[in-house]
């Protein structure tokens, strides 16, 4: 199976390429942002994947509108050639959140005009007989555009203060977990599973953005101490943006499990794996002691 992925430097694109390097049954080909009918004819993909904007609510409106225009143009080409389209989109479209986990059939109704444009594009995507819409929790990864974790580590290592919301509750989502899940879904569809539609995927355990950043800082400090390093990491500054009631943005991922048998992954375990890999790359001469708990955590996070 061959899939075309837009935005070659996006963290999801990089994660998908890393997955394909370990397999022989799927190939991910990347192009720049624009993929017109001529490009589709040249690549002849079995599916086209569009990575998400990291946080459309904080992007410049021009960026959001440009993304929507590209998806709309791409959709026309995919429908004309009967190529499946996979559109990944941030859970930030649920601008007001919800008290309970948000189901797939709940249509986002943002107040922001630019984000409403994305919702309108989503309605167009749903008219394509062969489409997948993936709503994702905030992605974190070690490399690529919009990776969050890499940017957070770099800021902390430079000693910069990091501002994070204490009253925004989300489910941080490993980009590698998304890549593995999306690969599994595409291969099942290639094998005859006609289960098009909208799916949610996020990490387990809702936490505030501030708590996630605090866990990253603590685990990073622990690993640095383990290799004999003690840099002065940047401090965290908590922000309160939603008055007295925290805004919860938690996705219900049950449909992905029921239809494709794909479980959510613990963001804490996935984060530990990424920080281990970061430390090993930065300090390759250090002999890390790998105890049984660490090894079991790696195996569980990897799904082995």
TrEMBL record:
Coiled-coil ranges per UniProt: none
Transmembrane segments: none
InterPro entries (UniProt xref): NAD(P)-bd_dom_sf, RmlD-like-bd
Pfam families, sorted: RmlD_sub_bind (PF04321)
Residue ranges occupied by any RmlD-like substrate binding domain in the UniProt entry: 67-277
Name of the protein: Sugar nucleotide-binding protein
Organism: Salinicola corii
Lineage, highest ranks first: Bacteria, Pseudomonadati, Pseudomonadota, Gammaproteobacteria, Oceanospirillales
